[in-house]
Design a protein that fits this description.
By secondary structure, the protein is mainly α. It contains 26 helices and no strands. The protein is globular, with a radius of gyration of 29 Å.
Length: 532
């Protein structure tokens, strides 16, 4: 096995839970052959390493033949995978179904067609429960093979039934492939540019969407088809900043999981994604009480059986929990509470962030910088903004990179660093022009900051803040300018300057007014229902 494969073996062993390691050792030791002890020993040696090192292995086990070590590691890798499969067999239904299909193939090859048909019947029942269309298609293939080898009454009827099922299953798989392929295309574009910037972006997106969508009757779609369709629409509406429709489809997706509770554990990743989408929509629309309830649902996933909680799921849960806790602070203006929490978890958060993909890291850094900015900790905000600005991945979420530079400029202004503002304005202009992201919103702010760098008197500042506020408010309903307010609501910052209050106080006052109105509306609706 090559050095690269050796690293893969090391990572595989490190990914195992204690119970899985114990199961592997017991199962290998029970083989009672001469090589089993070697596998267990090699397993322990690699498990005890902090980073993989072939030379260290040979030093600690001089009896291992260097020429045979590569082959031994290769076999160990396969044995570990077999062990993981066996360990999870009782809890992962798809593994059980695949095993039944394997048994059916063995029985078919021995001409035991009745036994083969019996196992296929059981496998099909399970596959229909989980909604795994690919496994259903595999089972149907073997059912056709069995019919071709047997003669009996009703064969023609059975053949027609299987053909209809194959066509129906293929159509459903085709729909899901179209939905997921289109979702992947939209996501790739979103990861590059962020929310749509102009009419050209919108036309490109709408063409891509309309030309790819198949004709369908939503009522006749299977559970999997609906889940993928709703996710696709959520992504599309979020992309074009139609949060109302995005919310409706995110809600429909979560409602499916509430209606079919048994799929929450079998499709836990899809369930987490559905809750995350709903939380994003609720945050953007300030549906605070709904947001709190959905957050509770997300946290309840931690109580799911251990056998469904792999490392990928744990990482997603932690990521979404952090992000939406940030969003809750932003909704209420509780930046001081957020910063106090950050101080407690900073070390753990740094380690966690290092495990994330580039896009998720970018979002975490931006959320963190906004949290510190809202609390008036501008140096800390700049520290995290510089992580974005100095990143090599400037082609990921170009919109976040653009607004990180704007927020960086405002932070320097707040610190009184007027001597560097001209430099940063020129640098930001160059970046925005290069990324084709210089719009009225950015122009107004950059021109405003450029004027402020000339040392306005205190009496002259407030009229300038009022003027900029008026300019920006006129953009709030523009479909291609309003995206700017998603990243940082500069209106609230301007109001804090005009009213000479901390920005957190401005947000808190607005949040209290909105929550009071929502409470009043909720009480009135309840009274109306009681009377009805």
């Amino acid at each position: 096995m090559s050095k690269e494969k050796s690293d893969v073996l090391f990572l595989l062993i490190k990914s195992l839970k204690k119970s899985e390691k114990r199961y592997f050792k017991v199962s290998v030791s029970s083989e009672n052959d001469s090589s089993s002890k070697k596998y267990v020993r090699l397993f322990d040696l690699i498990d005890n390493q902090k980073s993989f090192d072939d030379n260290e292995l040979l030093k600690k086990a001089p009896d291992l033949n260097p020429a045979q070590l590569s082959n031994l590691k290769s076999h160990l890798y396969k044995k570990i995978l077999q062990s993981i499969r066996q360990y999870n067999q009782s809890s992962v239904i798809d593994i059980q179904i695949r095993e039944m299909i394997d048994y059916a193939q063995i029985l078919f090859n021995r001409s035991l067609y009745d036994q083969c048909a019996s196992i296929l019947k059981k496998a099909k029942k399970q596959a229909l429960k989980t909604g795994n269309l690919e496994l259903q298609l595999e089972i149907l293939k073997w059912e056709k093979n069995v019919i071709n080898q047997t003669v009996g009454p009703g064969n023609q009827v059975r053949v027609n039934r299987i053909i209809e099922e194959v066509q129906d299953t293929n159509n459903r798989i085709n729909n899901i492939n179209i939905f997921t392929n289109l979702a992947a295309k939209l996501n790739a574009l979103y990861l590059k540019i962020g929310f749509i910037r102009n009419e050209s972006d919108f036309d490109q997106l709408r063409r891509m969407f309309n030309t790819s969508m198949p004709a369908y009757d939503e009522k006749k779609l299977s559970l999997d088809e609906k889940l993928n369709l709703y996710n696709l629409y959520v992504g599309y509406y979020f992309f074009i900043q139609d949060t109302e429709n995005g919310y409706l489809y995110a809600k429909k997706c979560v409602d499916l999981f509430d209606e079919h509770k048994q799929i929450r554990t079998s499709k836990v990743e899809a369930y987490i994604r559905a809750l995350n989408n709903l939380l994003i929509a609720q945050y953007k629309q300030f549906r605070y009480y709904e947001f709190v309830q959905t957050t509770r649902q997300l946290r309840e996933i931690r109580q799911f059986p251990k056998n469904v909680m792999n490392e990928n799921i744990r990482l997603r849960l932690i990521k979404y929990t952090y992000v939406h806790e940030f969003n809750r602070f932003f909704m209420l203006g509780d930046f001081d509470i957020g910063v106090a929490l950050m101080k407690k978890i900073k070390t753990g958060l740094e380690h966690f962030t290092s495990l994330l993909d580039s896009h998720s890291k970018l979002i975490m850094y931006y959320k963190t910088s906004c949290l510190y900015f809202g609390n008036g900790d501008y140096n800390e905000a700049i520290f995290y903004l510089n992580r974005i600005i100095n990143s090599e991945n400037v082609d990921i979420r170009e919109d976040v990179h653009s607004f990180a530079r704007i927020l960086n400029l405002i932070s320097h202004y707040e610190l009184g660093n007027v001597d560097v503002i001209d430099y940063y304005i020129r640098s930001t202009y160059r970046f925005l022009l290069k990324k084709d992201d210089l719009h009225n919103f950015q122009k107004y702010i950059l021109n405003f900051l450029k004027k402020l760098s000339y040392q306005f008197k205190e009496s002259q500042l407030i009229p300038e803040f009022i003027k900029l506020r008026s300019q920006l408010l006129s953009l709030k309903n523009n479909p291609y300018e309003k995206r700017a307010f998603v990243y940082f609501d500069i209106i609230e910052w301007l109001e804090s300057k005009i009213q000479q209050k901390p920005v957190a106080d401005i947000i808190k006052e607005k949040a209290k007014a909105i929550l009071k109105e929502q409470n009043t509306t909720s009480t009135e609706e309840k009274k109306s229902l009681d009377q009805y």
